[in-house]
Design goal:
Helix content: over 70%
Radius of gyration: 17 Å
Order of helices and strands: HHHHH
Strand content: under 5%
Largest sheet: none
Number of strands: 0
Number of domains: 1
Structural class: mainly alpha
Length: 148
């Protein structure tokens, strides 16, 4: 999970393809959320989980700075809102849900971790990979839409 987020950030920095970043950002977000829920059986959110979420959210800063340098102020503002409002709000909501589950005892926390694991690897990852591949495939077609 963390490895994918690091790979995503490297791709975001090295490639200037907006389509690649938008195709893989949902999987990086899902991995960061999944990482928080997988630690539900522990009393606190560890530093590595927080660092994973911050690393994922930093992609918005990378995209925003690139947009600002290119003079695309609308995209830069959108990424600033993601970085300041969306990602902190998502982190708070996910950790609050996790705390709520923990309040119901260790059995509930273990069930959350188990259900999260199954849902992430059997439903979320395949769907996101399929949609990302589908989105990337459309950018490879020539302008007239005819396959090469």
């Amino acid at each position: 999970m963390v490895g994918f987020t690091v790979l995503y950030l490297i791709i975001e920095v090295v490639l200037e393809s907006e389509q690649v970043g938008r195709s893989f950002s949902p999987l990086s977000t899902a991995a960061a959320v999944f990482h928080i829920w997988m630690t539900a059986e522990e009393a606190s959110v560890r530093w590595s989980v927080k660092l994973h979420f911050v690393a994922h959210a930093s992609s918005a800063a990378i995209i925003g700075i690139r947009a600002l340098c290119n003079g695309d102020y609308g995209d830069a503002l959108r990424m600033l809102i993601y970085f300041i409002v969306f990602y902190p709000g998502l982190y708070k909501a996910v950790t609050r849900f996790r705390s709520s589950v923990r309040a119901h005892g260790n059995a509930s926390a273990a069930k959350l971790a188990a259900v999260s694991f199954v849902a992430f690897w059997t439903a979320v990852v395949p769907v996101i990979l399929y949609l990302a591949a589908d989105s990337l495939g459309t950018t490879l077609l020539p302008p007239d839409g005819a396959p090469t």
